[in-house]
C-alpha cells in the first residue's frame, strides 16, 4: 500500500504497506499482529488519539473461551455443545451457525495466542465467580490488554497512525482501490493492496441511532468510545456491500442513569436488577427481574429500559440486598420509607408504594440464595419474578436510576469464514476483510453472551490477519 498524499508530520516519508488495518481495538490489533507474523508490512489507522486508543476494548475485562479441561484461570470444562446452547438461548437462534461454531471452536486457541502477545490473566474475583468456568479475565482489564497488543505489534514492526479518520473506502468493481482519510488534520490518501476493516459499529452516532430507534435514541447513553461513528460501515454499505443484522439490535445494558453520555465504560453498569424490582417512570414493573442468572440476562435490560417512557427506569431494593452486587460508582439513593424514596427518585409515591405492596404480597417464602437460580418466586403477579423474589421490607430502601447503555450495534457487513467481505451480488471483495463489531451481526442477531464480543473480535481478527497476509503473498 503506497502512501501518496500526506501533509504534516510524515512529510518526506515514502512508505509502502501490504496491509492497512482500519481501527485500533482488539479486533484490529489481533489482525495486525497475525498479518505481520505472516510476513506482511502493516499500517494501523486508529481514529482516536493515542490516549484514547482501543475503541470499546478499553473497557472490556474478559473473553468467553471453550476449553476441555481446567486451565490456570478457567475451572472445569466448557465444551462446544454447551457454548453453542448458551449462544442459541440468548440469540433466539438468530445467528449464522457456521460462523458461530467456527468462533466457538477457535476460542480454545485464543488464550495461548493472547498470552504470547503479553496479555496476562487472573482468576475470577468475587462478583464474577459465576463466570469462572466460561470466561477468562484480563489482569488489568482492557487497557492492559491493549497495551500488550500494541507493544507486541510495534515490536514486530507494525506502524500506527493515531488521530486518523477514514473518510472514504473507494470500491471499484470488487476491489478496494484507495482510502481517503484525515490524519491529525491533514489529508491522507493511500492506494490499496489489502484492507482489514475493524472500525466498530455506529453506536456513538446518535443521528444514525435515531434513524433506527426514532427520537428516543437521544436519551441513550453510550458506554464505549465516542469515536464509533460508523463512517466506514456506512461508506461500505452505500457502495453495495451486503449488510447483516438489524439496526435496532445492539448490545445494550442497563446502566446508572447518572453516567456520562459517552465512555462511561463497565464501571457504570448496574448489577442490582436480579435482587430488585424495576419500575418505569409511572412506578410500574414491566419485566421478570429474576428470569435467569445475570451473565445470561444483563444484556437484555438496556433494550427493555429503552422501550419505557422517556427511556428511564428505577431499580428498588432494601437494605438486605445492598451487599449482593457490585455497587454503582455513584452514591446509592436511600430513604427510610418507600414514599420518601419515590420522592427522591422523582416518582409518584402512592404508585410506587402500591407496586411494592403488590410485589411483597406475591412473594412465596423459600430458601433465598443469591449465587444460583433459587426458585424463590412470586405467585399471582404480572409480570412474575421467577427467582430471588424476596419482599422489600427492611429500611433503608435504596433506588438507582437506570438508562439504556449502548455498547455496540449489530448492523454490519457480511463476511464468510475467511473474514472476506461479501457484496450484495454475493461476490467477494477481493482485497477487503472485516473483523470485530463491524461484522459481529453475522453471529449476534440479537441478545448477548458475556465475553462473546471479545471472542468474535479475537477469532475473526486473527482469521483476517492470516488470510490477508496469505493474499499478499499470492
TrEMBL record:
Q: Which UniProt keywords apply?
A: FAD, Flavoprotein, Oxidoreductase
Q: Does the keyword Zinc apply?
A: no
Q: Which residues form a coiled coil?
A: none
Ranges where the FAD-dependent oxidoreductase 2 FAD-binding domain occurs? 18-443
Cofactors demanded by this protein: FAD
Note the superkingdom of the native organism: Bacteria
This chain belongs to which protein, by name?
A: Precorrin 3B synthase CobZ /tricarballylate dehydrogenase
Q: Which organism is it from?
A: Acidocella aminolytica 101 = DSM 11237
Q: Upper taxonomic classification of the species?
A: Bacteria, Pseudomonadati, Pseudomonadota, Alphaproteobacteria, Acetobacterales
Amino acid at each position: 500500500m503506497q502512501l501518496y498524499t500526506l501533509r504534516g508530520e510524515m512529510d518526506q516519508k515514502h512508505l509502502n504497506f501490504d496491509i492497512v488495518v482500519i481501527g485500533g481495538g482488539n479486533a484490529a490489533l489481533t489482525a495486525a499482529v497475525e498479518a505481520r507474523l505472516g510476513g506482511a508490512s502493516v499500517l494501523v489507522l486508529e481514529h482516536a488519539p493515542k490516549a484514547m486508543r482501543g475503541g470499546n476494548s478499553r473497557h472490556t475485562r474478559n473473553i468467553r473461551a471453550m476449553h476441555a479441561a481446567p486451565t490456570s484461570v478457567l475451572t472445569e470444562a466448557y465444551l462446544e455443545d454447551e457454548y453453542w446452547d448458551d449462544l442459541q438461548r440468548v440469540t433466539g437462534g438468530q445467528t449464522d451457525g457456521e460462523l458461530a461454531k467456527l468462533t466457538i471452536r477457535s476460542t480454545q486457541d485464543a488464550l495461548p495466542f493472547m498470552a504470547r502477545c503479553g496479555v496476562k490473566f487472573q482468576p475470577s474475583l468475587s462478583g464474577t465467580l459465576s463466570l469462572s468456568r466460561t470466561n477468562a479475565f484480563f489482569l488489568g482489564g482492557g487497557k492492559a490488554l491493549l497495551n500488550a497488543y500494541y507493544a507486541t505489534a510495534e515490536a514486530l514492526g507494525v506502524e500506527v497512525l493515531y488521530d486518523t479518520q477514514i473518510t472514504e473506502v473507494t470500491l471499484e468493481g470488487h476491489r478496494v482501490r484507495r482510502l481517503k482519510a484525515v490524519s491529525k488534520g491533514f489529508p491522507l490518501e493511500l492506494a490499496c493492496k489489502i484492507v482489514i476493516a475493524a472500525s466498530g459499529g455506529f453506536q456513538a452516532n446518535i443521528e444514525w441511532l435515531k434513524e433506527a430507534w426514532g427520537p428516543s435514541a437521544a436519551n441513550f447513553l453510550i458506554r464505549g468510545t465516542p469515536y464509533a461513528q460508523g463512517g466506514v460501515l456506512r461508506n461500505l454499505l452505500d457502495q453495495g456491500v451486503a449488510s447483516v443484522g438489524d439496526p435496532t439490535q445492539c448490545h445494550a445494558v442497563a446502566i446508572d442513569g447518572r453516567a456520562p453520555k459517552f465512555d462511561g465504560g463497565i464501571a457504570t453498569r448496574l448489577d442490582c436488577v436480579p435482587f430488585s424490582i424495576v419500575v418505569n417512570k409511572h412506578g410500574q414493573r414491566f419485566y421478570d427481574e429474576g428470569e435467569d442468572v445475570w451473565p445470561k440476562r444483563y444484556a437484555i435490560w438496556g433494550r427493555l429500559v429503552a422501550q419505557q417512557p422517556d427511556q428511564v427506569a428505577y431499580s428498588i431494593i432494601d437494605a438486605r440486598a445492598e451487599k449482593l452486587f457490585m455497587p454503582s460508582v455513584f452514591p446509592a439513593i436511600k430513604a427510610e420509607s418507600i414514599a420518601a424514596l419515590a420522592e427522591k427518585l422523582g416518582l409518584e409515591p402512592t404508585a410506587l408504594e402500591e407496586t411494592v405492596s403488590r410485589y411483597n404480597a406475591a412473594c412465596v417464602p423459600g430458601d433465598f440464595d443469591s449465587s444460583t437460580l433459587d426458585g424463590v418466586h412470586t405467585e399471582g403477579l404480572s409480570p412474575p419474578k421467577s427467582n430471588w423474589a424476596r419482599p422489600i421490607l427492611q429500611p433503608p430502601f435504596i433506588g438507582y436510576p437506570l438508562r439504556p447503555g449502548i455498547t455496540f450495534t449489530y448492523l454490519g457487513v457480511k463476511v464468510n469464514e475467511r473474514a472476506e467481505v461479501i457484496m450484495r451480488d454475493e461476490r467477494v471483495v477481493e482485497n477487503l476483510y472485516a473483523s470485530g463489531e463491524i461484522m459481529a451481526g453475522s453471529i449476534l442477531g440479537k441478545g448477548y453472551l458475556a465475553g462473546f464480543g471479545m471472542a468474535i473480535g479475537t477469532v475473526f481478527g486473527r482469521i483476517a490477519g492470516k488470510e490477508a497476509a496469505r493474499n499478499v503473498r499470492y
